[in-house]
Design brief:
Blueprint lengths: L1 H19 L3 E7 L2 E7 L4 H12 L8 E5 L3 E4 L21 E2 L13 E4 L12 E2 L3 E4 L6 H25 L4 H12 L3 H18 L10 H9 L12 E7 L1 H8 L15 E7 L1
Helix pairs in contact: 4-5
Length: 274
């Protein structure tokens, strides 16, 4: 009896861990058919917010207000509920944003679930919309295109690390010196400071400076497709596991000049699957 009880007690932490790490499944019932989605545990802020909104039935009755074939289908604007024809949509939300949760393991492959957001000019931290999301369609991508995208993402990451470095209080003196030379258009002096910062960043963040797709990710983009130019710029927090044909069906509907479907495509309900 004691051995049996001990076995149960020892098994319980494993069971609790397994339950906590079980991925959440969500069913989107739309007027074009059903889409089953898996939410990633590695993006907990987006996962928990999405679950909260689904539980509140926030998405029920909303439209896919932006549809672009071979790119993505977007929904989540509360202003789209019962919206009359011709009404401009895409700016609504719950009144808050979610911090970005970029993860190089999660790419914009076809069927990826990702958070929409406002542009970098007013949103430099790339925070996500509190409710709007999109499902990726995309096209097949060549290795040459992926090479170019890798270089662009790596360059962007390096620029961001430099900005982060200069924003720290302990680096104020070198920032002030750089701004001074910039205002005086002293290019050689500016380059000298840039080299110092570049060396410091390269030594400190050497593992974060070069973005590379894995062979498996490259194969996905080559054979299934997606929108890789959005990688590490918009948070991917889940993926379609059933109903990609429905995503394609929605992506193929006729749209107006604002990319809103001429005939409404509506979310009937969203449910968490137990």
């Amino acid at each position: 009896m004691k051995k049996t009880l001990l076995g149960i007690i020892m098994f319980m932490p494993i069971l609790i861990f397994a339950q906590k790490n079980k991925e959440t499944m969500v069913l989107l019932e739309t007027t074009q058919g059903n889409i089953k989605i898996k939410l990633y545990n590695e993006t907990p802020k987006h996962r928990d917010n999405f679950i909260k909104l689904v539980t509140e039935k926030y998405y029920d009755g909303l439209l896919f207000h932006r549809v672009i074939k071979d790119f993505m289908i977007q929904t989540g604007d509360p202003n789209s509920k019962n919206a009359p024809k011709g009404k401009a949509l895409g700016s609504g939300g719950p009144g808050y944003t979610i911090p970005a949760e970029f993860n190089p393991a999660f790419i914009h492959k076809k069927g990826a679930l990702a958070a929409a957001r406002t542009g970098d000019n007013i949103n430099p931290l790339k925070a996500s919309s509190g409710s709007q999301f999109y499902i990726v369609g995309g096209r097949k991508i060549s290795d040459d295109e992926l090479n170019q995208i890798e270089d662009k993402i790596s360059s962007s990451q390096k620029i961001q690390l430099m900005k982060d470095y200069l924003s720290k209080p302990e680096n104020k003196s070198i920032k002030d010196e750089y701004i001074k030379y910039q205002n005086e258009n002293m290019v050689i002096k500016m380059d000298s400071i840039r080299k110092i910062i570049d060396k410091t960043i390269s030594e400190k963040y050497k593992n974060n400076l070069i973005f590379k797709y894995t062979p498996q990710q490259r194969e996905i983009y080559r054979t299934i497709g997606g929108t890789p130019f959005l990688d590490m710029n918009y948070t991917v927090f889940g993926e379609v596991i059933e109903g990609l044909d429905i995503v394609d069906k929605i992506a193929s509907v006729k749209v107006d000049t604002g990319n809103r479907p001429e005939e409404d495509v509506k979310i009937i309900s969203v449910k968490i699957l137990k």
